[in-house]
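Section 3.1 - Work completed
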Amino acid sequence: MINNILKNSFYQKIKGFKSYIVLIFLLIFSIIIVSIYDRFKSDQIKNLENIFQNIYLQKTIKSISSSLEPRFEKINYSINAGETFEGILNELKLGQNQINRVLNFISKKKIKLNLYANQKITFEIDNLNTKKIINITIPINKKKDLIISYNNEENSYYSLELNKELTLNRIYKENFIKNSLYKSAVDKKIDPNIIVQFAQIYGFEVDFQRDIRKNDSFQIVYEEFKNDENKTVDFGNILYANLILQGKSLELYYFKSEKDKISDHFESNGQSIKKTLMKTPINGARLSSGYGNRKHPILGYTKLHTGTDFAAPTGTPIMASGSGKILKAGWCGGGGNCVKIRHNSTYSTVYAHMSKFARGIKKGVRVTQGQIIGYVGSTGMSTGPHLHYEVIKNGKKINSQTLKLPSGKKLKGQNREDFELAKIKINVLKSELINKQN
């Protein structure tokens, strides 16, 4: 009787802990299963590692992957001097049908390709089945690209000109001139293109070799364009320039009128800085021989030197001192390679001893004031690299350095009012840029 009572009591207690006992059993079972799985998984991983470390398998995978060619391929091609577009397409190892198709499209649409050395062209190619060009990007200039693309649905090519996304910044710089304008500008990290533009603007009024003195100074506000990589790719106009020579300021403001086709720099009173001819057609040169009688360095006897010589390193750009038509671009005997320009019925100019002519310079071509026409050299009867520059007035050679030329146009009426407003805006912009630096 007592035994039965004890048994019932024991069963009742076990029954009360039944859920806990089941939970413990499941926990132990789970631990055992996980332990077995981990061991199995570890063995599997080791087996896989041994397979992948197999040198024969590695060689096989490498051989297969190296033989595979991606479907889409981008090629950045740098043009060599003298290369043609057809030659470039042949370099890409395209089929002749594909080459002919692209060339026929360019010919049919009368697309002009201005190719030059070191120009970068981007080709996008589809390698599925046979190689096919799906996109060509050709830079037209720093602000615009020519795009030739393939339309898969229409099975044909089309072209468009695409403006690059550029950010316009306006920059203010100033400095004292210690040695030369060029060095003082470079010290302030001003790009050489802006320095040349600055010198061209003042070239009508200032002789940078003789008029600049130590501790003269300059101020400049100019436009700079940056791409999406924050790299400077181009420059715009010089909006404001001030050259302070021996305490005297010569301020210039940029003014543009679409209606009257004006795009020039003007003094504060609305007077254009431009004259018929620039005072010097070359920047950074030293006046080595003036107009007048002198002993010829090669012939050895005294004769009239009918021009002005500017000593400069070989390759220094030479500018047209005024707009006009080229009468000659070729060999001039003792003058070596020379260019002669007729500016109007009164004035002509001659540029001699050039090392070479600029691209496109030949007889009959019209040039604009400040345009580069050639480069300093020592061709012909010359003892060293320099530019021999002559000004001819009514058929007679005269001294270019003492020549008094009429001033350019002066703004009047509505243009003058618009200029005054533009001048105020530029002065406000200059003040804001100066404040940002302080």
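Second construct:
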Amino acid sequence: MFARKLQPKEYWRAGLNMVVAFEGSFEYGKELEKSETARENPLEDYYGTFPGEGEAPVASVIMNKKQVRFDGHVLKMGGVGGVATLPAHRRGGAVRACMELALRDLYKEGCALSHLYPFSTAYYRQYGFAPAGKTLRWRVKLRDLKRLPDVGGRVRQLLPGDDLSPLTEIYAKACGDTNFSCLREVFDKDLEGEKPLKDRRWIFLWSDEEGIPGGFLIGSRVKDTLHCVTEFSGRDALIFTDAKALVGLLHFVYEAFIANFADIEFGVPDHMDLAGLLPEISGMDYKPVLNGMARAVNAETLLKLCRCRGEGRLAIGVTDKIIPENNHTFLLDFAPGRENLVERTEGPADIELDAGNLAVLLGGCRGADSIAMTPDIRVNAPGIDLSQVFYRKPCHIRDLF
């Protein structure tokens, strides 16, 4: 058994693996014909595991190439998707062969992070991933929006042929200081043309009194709910740059749809607390949802670029079963007004953790106070102030892969 990158003419095999593994449908002849003219996509790498030479791949992984924000910098990130194994080859290490090769390739290509959405967090911990932040999913009854103030501004529906660039601009502004958020040239290509109307999705843009766009919602009907959640089953959204834009959108939803829907469902990053903004929350349905898992691909890069507080030094022992270059103790030296200094050391580590916990702590998904409840992190210097390096920051990703 061995793993390698798939050639464009083999990409269809990854699609076949996915539909078999997840019980989907597949037009075999059509996909085989398309494979004859398939071209390499610079934003995706396909990997397959083969039982032997001349045989078809029995497992596959797709690595999506992204650029993400991290403490004021832009880093390369690999988004793991399309993980699938044919049933007859499960539990035999086929996915592991793909994942290990793909992660090592990310390191060679200069990526610093990787992210995925797990079917099981326990399963993906073996590849060095750790649970990242959370999305706070709100379901609010429309009648409970009645007391929201009218903040002015204007809402208009975007229809085929309208300019969609404000969506990209609002998304960029809303995510400007949010770690792990992906850069986008276009907010969503599936919103172009007539496709949204065919899919019964609606786009509404809120602008302030001066005509400056500040928020938008992309919604669809799920029974009696106005669905504005980004998920694999429906990539809707509600995105805003400030509280006024959110109130403007929700006030519009109440005024326009009180007779059409019972409630609205939307998600926000877990660093946003809306309890003080919504006028009535006693009847709400509110729950946190895992915002995927993350891991460091290049620990040294993250340590050099992470934003620390104050002045100090911290020896961080990193373990990584897949990328050997990360298996070191790194001495982090930081101070205001200069770049971090990072060197590999043979000295003792103040803290020991794996590549996954390193990523989510430096990214700000969790803070130092969470370390006591993370058994696989070992603190060897109990009196040291870990909150200078590990503290909560806006950290959230909306892209799916």
